[in-house]
Protein 1
Amino acid sequence: MQPEEIGRLIATAILDRRLVPGRRLNELELSRLLGASRSMIRFALVGLQHDGLVAFEANRGAFVAKPTLADAHFLFEALAANERAAVDIVLAAATPPSLERLRGVHARQAKARARGRTRRSEQLAIDFHHELVALTGDPLLVDAQRKLLLRYRVATAVFKTGLDDRELEDPHGEILALLESRSAAKLRRRVDQHWRLVIRGQASAAHDVADLAEALRL
């Protein structure tokens, strides 16, 4: 098993909240379970550290990253700043990009929520923010957004909004409408308002999967 595959396996378990923030990632156990050398495991974990999913502690090893509330605030501010830059680029474009993909994601999210598929709705909400920045066609902004959204998923395993999830749907529809009307100032404000709404959080009751093999779904 190569480091990329190992990294994807661990990342999926983290992002699906089967490995919760603060969980120790024992290299020997991972090596035994995955049939890979410790050097391969370490290489994969370092890659996940670069994405903000894993943290190393001196003389203790690797752990699933556990952001503080202050970290979460900085993260949401960074997401808002990245998206403000993105909408400026999109609205300044001589030829407006197609919004079909963004509309499609929003429609699927609304359908998932109506059917009570909360986890699916959460993933589509993340996809919406990825597609929003992808409209720029700027690979640096898109990569920054990808990394920020990975960290967002870890943060939401620690902190969850105290709001009814339905309160977070309308801003996506409004963002779409403002993109269509090309209202730059209103759109920037709406992006900021959306992330200020999301940042209202409380401690989450995330449940760890004790058995590592089960958490990795081996």
Protein 2
Amino acid sequence: MNKLDREALEQYGVLGWDRRSYAARLADAFSQLANTLIGGMPDETLSGRSYRILMLQQAGAPWRWQVIRRAAELLFFWQGGRHTENAFFADLERAAARARAAELFRRALS
């Protein structure tokens, strides 16, 4: 078994990768929970999901996702109308960091 490469893990942001405040992480967790309870992917926030659905389906997107997106943009007004887009890409970045970490652990344990 190979030794886990601490430097590689740190490079991929696995050790303490989420340096946001506790409140920000808790808000994200609630958003992910709410999204999961209504049938979404567990690692995706409501804001990120609303952006994804509206970008993929464009005019055919259900009205409720337009309402959710507008509500999120109003709630996070200081992000200049880009909160849901930022959330979507943050969701992807977190998923990518977990995938990289899993691959590093898989290699180290083989």
